Amino acid sequence: MSRLEPVGPVIVLSPHLDDAVYSCAHFLSAHPSTTVVTVLAGAPDAFHEGYNSSSTGQSYAPDAVKVRRDEDRTALAFLGATPIWLDLLDSDYVEYRPKANYVDLVRDEISRVLVEMSPATVIAPMGLIHRDHLAVSDASRDLWSRSTATWYLYMDLPYGLAHPRAVSKRLRILRRRVGLVELEEYGGDDVIKQQAMGLYGSQFEPTRRNYREIFDATMKADERYWRVENIG
Ligand SMILES: [Zn+2]
Q: pLDDT (tens digit, 9 = 90+) per residue, 68-120?
């Protein structure tokens, strides 16, 4: 099995303001000039009660997202990565999204960033369980054949550890169109990963509560990556 050793510049696509670190902190820590593009990092200009308000304690959506962006800035700086935040809305704010197919908007925005930044490598979520993760994965899949970058997928954590059958199912679906070469599991310093995850202060406890059985494993387990090949 080969190891993930991508050519730079590298972009990691993150659905929410924490996913790249939960899923790829070992990689980010070993590749300190990576740019993390968080796709669904916007806020409607509205007061809103939902996941973002309850986890941050801020009911004005721009304030809630500011808390989460600040956490992301701190955690990525700790790992030596640089954030870019797109103003698209996560599913907590679904009623504020335009009526158009949201995956199309997500694809167009990611495409715009890739044209601007010309990365040699893009590492995207495989797209597990959460509909926002699936949307970002599906949007990226549409870009594989149009981009000159080499694409890799990461296993979304903690979802992949909590739902191993969802991983096999998603791999089967993705492999209908491309080859996916599994790479060596990617280990790193568990303490650094735990510290980075802990810097998402508003998310750490809710995620630990929701994923009690595998939360420690998420902090300690090796990360999983696949290289996308034979893009038709
Ligand atoms: Zn997420």
A: 999 999 999 999 999 999 999 999 999 999 988 999 999 999 999 999 999 99
144 C-alpha vs ligand 1 centroid, how far in Å? 21
Instruction: Give the CATH H-level superfamily of domain 10-229.
Output: LmbE-like (3.40.50.10320)
pTM over 0.85: yes
14 by DSSP, 3-state: which?
Answer: strand
Reading the block at residue 25, the tokens are 């902190």
Task: Write down the domain spans for the chain.
Answer: 10-229
Q: Who's near 39: CB < 8 A, 6+ residues apart?
A: 13, 14, 15, 86, 88, 106, 109, 110, 136, 139
**Distance of CA 99 from the midpoint of ligand 1 (Å):** 22
State yes or no: cis peptide before 158, omega within 30 of 0: yes
β-pair type (225-229, 150-154): antiparallel
Sign of the dihedral through C-alpha 91, 215, 27, 70: positive
Give the pLDDT mean for 163-192.
95
Contact criterion met (CB below 8 Å) for 222 and 158: no
* CA of residue 133 to ligand 1 center, whole Å: 6
